[in-house]
Amino acid sequence: MVSDFDLRVEILIYFAPADVPLVRRIQTAVVLQWVFSFLALAPICIILFFFLLYTRFWLISVLYAIWWYIDWDTPSRGGRKVPFLCRMRVWEYTRDYFPIKLVKTADLDPRKNYVLGFHPHGILVAGAFTNFCTEATGFSKLFPGLRSNLLMLPLWFRAPFFRDYIMSAGLVPSDKESASYLLQRKGGGNAVVIAVGGAPEALDAHPGDYTVHLANKKGFIKLAIEHGADLVPIYSFGENEVFDQLENPHGTWLRYIQERLQSIMGISLPLFHARGVFQYSFGLMPYRKPINTVVGRPIPVEKNKKPTAEELDVFHQRYMDELTHLFEEHKGNYGVPEDSHLLFQ
């Protein structure tokens, strides 16, 4: 005899059909691996490192610890990007799962260096990773001569084994030392990608929300001026649509706790959910919704080792204006309502 509860659960869970094409199953498996890597691989690597010390394989951790000591400064010195891994076909399955597209609006001179501001952060920055850490969307073909590096919280580069994994994709710590190292390379062609809103912006990553944490963000502006790197705004349409998040408006106890934890740990903890692997009702797999990452026009920047506050304000306002123009110009192409506009915080 089936209870009312069983009937209710059966109705609420929408299972994937059995005849899902193989290619879509592969896409799901690849994205599952990516989500797992983002959420769980770092702590697993830390546990593995210490676990091996108490087994007959202790030498692996000891040798790695020696290597780690020797290689300590590599993340802040350009990392160790492996082009072969970035071009693997596996990332094309990630691209096609959503799908993700990189849209070019202007040429970028490979003789110059650039600071690319990525907006919004979203939950797991799917657009930033796929577009700028892999070749799945053709970054090198759209912008020949440019090498991209995405900045990530320095915390993750302190995890053994995991640090080497993320460096292979071109990720480097999101501190001034790491970004400056790339931007002062001679010959140009370096594109530093910064999710300007950072971890706090992830707490505003709700579907239909166009909040951008930029009003008081001037560090990346100063970085660009100090190195004479042109500023390029990027807006990733659909970045906030691939996950749902528990409602956490400012002033609620949930938002207070999240912001307190973020200030202590440096990472935000959005309570997000979407679909599962074999069903569409709940889980941590992102929805299959398109992400269109639009790269705007470059803002020319003259090098000044000691920019004034007035100069920072001028370029900051110019950047905000250019990002607004980019959003308004392209929002109609990607399903954003005409009466929706960017909200700067």
From TrEMBL:
The chain crosses the membrane at residues 31-54. The keyword RNA-binding does not apply. It is a multi-pass membrane protein. Its EC number is 2.3.1.-. GO terms for biological process: diacylglycerol biosynthetic process; triglyceride biosynthetic process. Belongs to the diacylglycerol acyltransferase family. This is Acyltransferase. It comes from Sinocyclocheilus grahami (Dianchi golden-line fish).
